[in-house]
Design goal:
mainly alpha, elongated
C-alpha cells in the first residue's frame, strides 16, 4: 500500500492537472456528459418550463373572451399543467446530476491534494489510510512456480481501483507531456 501511495503522490506533486483528468476518466460515477453540455440542457429545460406560463395566460384569455369551450379549456389546461410537472421533474434530475458530477470532481481534487501532501511519506498511518483508501481486498495466497503470491487490490476514495493499466496510461501521458515540453524548450532556444 505504501508503494502505491508513494507512486501516486509523486505523480500528483508534479502532474496534478493530468492526474485529475485521468482519475475523472476512471471514476465511473462521472458521466460522459460534460458539465457544459448538462448546463446547456438545464438552460433549455428552464426556458421550456418558463415558456408554459405565457401559453397558460393566452389560454385563460381565450376562455375569458369565450373563444374556446370549457371542455377544450380543461383539456389544454391539463396538458400544460402536465408539461410543467414533467419539465420541473426533468429540471430537478438534471440539476441533481450536475451537482453529483461537481461533487465527484471536487472529491477527486481533494484526493489528489491528499496525495500531494504525502509526497515524502515513509510510513503508513491511520490518517493516510482513512483519507486515501476506501477499502482493500486481500485474496488467498496462490502458489506460482516455487513461491507464494498474494494479490491485494486497493480501492481509493472516489475513484475506486487504479489498476496497473490506469497507472501505465497515466505514466505514458506524463512521459509524453515531458517529451513535448522538452521539444518546446529546444525550439525556443
Amino acid at each position: 500500500m505504501l508503494t502505491e501511495i508513494q507512486k501516486f503522490s509523486k505523480i500528483a506533486a508534479i502532474y496534478k492537472d493530468e492526474m485529475l483528468k485521468k482519475l475523472i476518466g476512471i471514476n465511473s460515477n462521472i458521466k460522459l456528459k460534460s458539465n457544459s453540455l448538462l448546463e446547456r440542457q438545464i438552460r433549455k429545460t428552464n426556458r421550456e418550463l418558463q415558456g408554459t406560463a405565457p401559453k397558460i395566460d393566452v389560454l385563460i384569455d381565450q376562455m375569458a373572451n369565450g373563444n374556446i369551450s370549457d371542455a377544450m379549456f380543461k383539456k389544454l389546461m391539463n396538458q400544460y399543467e402536465q408539461m410543467q410537472i414533467e419539465l420541473s421533474e426533468k429540471l430537478t434530475e438534471q440539476k441533481a446530476e450536475l451537482s453529483a458530477i461537481k461533487d465527484d470532481i471536487g472529491n477527486i481534487r481533494h484526493l489528489i491534494d491528499c496525495f500531494q501532501e504525502r509526497v515524502y511519506i515513509e510510513e503508513l498511518d491511520r490518517e493516510t489510510i482513512v483519507e486515501l483508501i476506501d477499502y482493500i481486498e486481500v485474496f488467498k495466497k496462490e502458489k506460482v512456480e516455487n513461491e507464494y503470491l498474494q494479490r491485494v487490490d486497493i480501492y481509493f476514495n472516489f475513484v475506486g481501483q487504479i489498476t496497473s493499466d490506469h497507472f501505465h496510461a497515466l505514466k505514458e501521458f506524463v512521459l509524453e507531456s515531458e517529451a513535448e515540453n522538452k521539444t518546446n524548450m529546444t525550439q525556443v532556444v
